[in-house]
Amino acid sequence: MTELIASIAGPYLFVTGLGFFISSNFYQRMIAAQSDANPILLNLSGAVHFVVGMVALANHFKVSSIAGALVTLVGAAAVLKGASLIVIPDYMTKSQQMGKRGVLATGTAFIAVGTYLSYVGYF
Questions:
Q1: Cβ pair 20, 98 in contact under 8 A
Q2: Which among 69, 101, 104, 75 has a CA at the least distance from the CA of 9?
Q3: CA-to-CA distance for 68 and 57, rounded, in angstroms?
Q4: Residue 44 parent element (H or E)
Q5: What angle (nearest 5°) sits at the alpha carbon of residue 108, between those of residues 75 and 82?
Q6: How many whole angstroms separate alpha carbon 54 and alpha carbon 32?
Q7: Structure pTM?
Q8: Could you report the per-residue pLDDT of 64-96, keeping only the tens digit for each?
Q9: How far out from the chain centre does Cα 34 lie?
Q10: Cβ count within 10 A of residue 34
Q11: Is 60 helix (H, G, I), strand (E, B) or coil?
């Protein structure tokens, strides 16, 4: 199960990380615009994060290896973000700013984790 979830989450994280580098201005604007987001879309985003994370955790909750711990952590992060967007949406959308450095640091982390999980999932 670790390999299956890694083969799905890894490429997603890698591609998203590339987006943070290639379209960093877009991601800065997207993060800053959260305070003006449509409430229905925020709730829907929370639902998607929550369900995807719960599917991962329901099928995988082990930390016996680095890959297993990362897969579990990715699932838990999705559940926490989803639950937060549903339960405390006003707090989650307070004018959050992320400068260029923050976007690039986030992109670096996504690429690193995505590359590792892709490797685990496909090789």
A1: no
A2: 75
A3: 11
A4: helix 39-59
A5: 30
A6: 27
A7: 0.90
A8: 999 999 999 999 999 999 999 999 999 988 866
A9: 16
A10: 16
A11: coil
